[in-house]
Specification:
It contains 7 helices and 7 strands; from the N terminus they run ααβαβαββαβαβαβ. It is α/β, with parallel strands linked by helices. Helix 1 packs across helix 4 (about 70-80). The longest helix is centred in the middle third of the chain and has 14 residues, at about 70-80. The N and C termini lie far apart (about 50 Å). The mean pLDDT is about 95. Bound molecules: S-adenosylmethionine. S-adenosylmethionine binds near residues 67, 91, 113 and 191. S-adenosylmethionine binds next to strand 2 and helix 7.
């Protein structure tokens, strides 16, 4: 019987995204195939990442989160689930940390229920800013999609307004968002919690052009 420490070590050995300081990632080496790559930013407890990866074995998934505690949870689950098409990285997503990802190489990026930072004095902490949308554009393939969900009305408007100002993204939903979830939609921990409190999500989807 392995200890928790051994489980984490073994899981990291297999599922951690190995980033060499100067080298650009070669996804064919990482996953051993040429399947398209999707990234989830802020994977939290991993419900969305793991379920979506199970449903789509022909797609490779990278889950990132900045918190060590969250990342450990992801490695513990992966040790049990053994999903060959998933890699995890502890990353604070910013201009610097994405340098190792080849430009225009990601087909789809997911941002599920980012922290809404509801107070005006904290708005600068919201992950969706124009600098963040620049990063998305750099990573996504032409025609690639960013998929966002939030239950927070003000944040939803903030996101819609930011993307409305962009010439490099087009909204897939006419109004900028929809309240209808797609078939096969995976509910995350935060989404479930917020629905129980009476907050229904807004779904936004933008295509990189
Ligand atoms: C509110 S939680 C949502 C988690 C999960 N997506 C869900 O819906 O249950 C936001 C997550 O994003 C992570 N996060 C916030 N900013 C980030 C950044 N710049 N880079 C990577 N992860 C980030 C946090 O650590 C946290 O786990």
């Amino acid at each position: 019987m392995l200890t928790d420490k051994e489980i984490l070590e073994e899981s990291r050995r297999i599922f951690e995204l190995q980033i060499e300081e100067k080298d650009m990632l070669d996804f064919k080496n990482v996953f051993g195939n040429k399947h398209p790559v999707h990234i989830e930013i802020g994977s939290g407890r991993g419900e969305f990442l793991f379920r979506t990866a199970q449903q789509n074995p022909e797609i490779n998934f990278i889950g990132i989160d900045l918190k060590e505690k969250r990342v450990k949870t992801l490695f513990r689950i992966l040790y049990k689930e053994k999903l060959k098409n998933v890699r995890i990285a502890k990353i604070f997503l910013d201009e610097e940390s994405i340098k190792f990802i080849p430009p225009n190489s990601i087909e789809r990026i997911y941002l599920q229920h980012p922290d809404p930072w509801p107070k005006k004095r904290h708005f600068h902490r919201r992950i969706v800013q124009h600098s963040f949308i620049d990063i998305l554009h750099k990573l996504l393939t032409k025609g690639g999609i960013i998929d966002i969900a939030t239950d927070h009305e003000d944040y939803a408007n903030w996101i819609v307004e930011h993307f409305r100002k962009r010439k490099d993204f087009t909204s897939i939903n006419k109004k900028g968002f929809t309240r209808e979830s797609e078939d096969g939609h995976v509910e995350t921990y935060f989404e479930k919690k917020k629905r129980e409190e009476g907050f229904e999500p807004y779904f936004m989807k933008y295509r990189s052009i």
